[in-house]
Amino acid sequence: MAIATSFDVVHSCGHTLTHDLTSRSADQRAGYVRWLSARQCTDCWRTAHQADAASTAEWLEARRAEEQAAAQEWATRFAMPLLEGPEKILAWGERTRHQLVTAAYTDLVTEGTWDESDWAAFEEQVRLLTRAGWWVDQRDAQGSDLPELLDAAGQRDRPTENPFR
Ligand SMILES: [Zn+2]
Fold this sequence. Notes:
Blueprint: E1 6-10, E2 16-20, H1 29-37, H2 42-77, H3 87-110, H4 116-128, H5 132-137, H6 146-152
The structure holds zinc ion.
Zinc ion (ZN) binds next to helix 2.
Region (Disordered): 146-165
């Protein structure tokens, strides 16, 4: 009697699919059927993965919106000017500026040796730096590095600086 080539496999999702195992050698079919039965059927697998991808994207978007709202509130409270640059990176630049300047405050004032007047002078420098791309470029920097980074910034990073002030 020939070994069967067509198997009804009950998948882990409960669906039964008929699999043609002609391409597998006879002695491998039983093992392959066991392997298949431990898995979801193709349709269920695809649905589950699409749902995963969709919820990850949704979560990221919600988190980004939250960070954006926090960055805007912060910018208003501390009179930070709007950034300049290509539309598609403006929001990213604002989020990075917020995170980096907040981290710098923690490093330099809360946990460091700066007093509030040091910080106020520094904040003035931060306000001049309005090129969104500059902030995006510094996104991996430490808060404590910010004074040095600001010193290194060029004139084109401060497009609104008034030379007569
Ligand atoms: Zn299924």
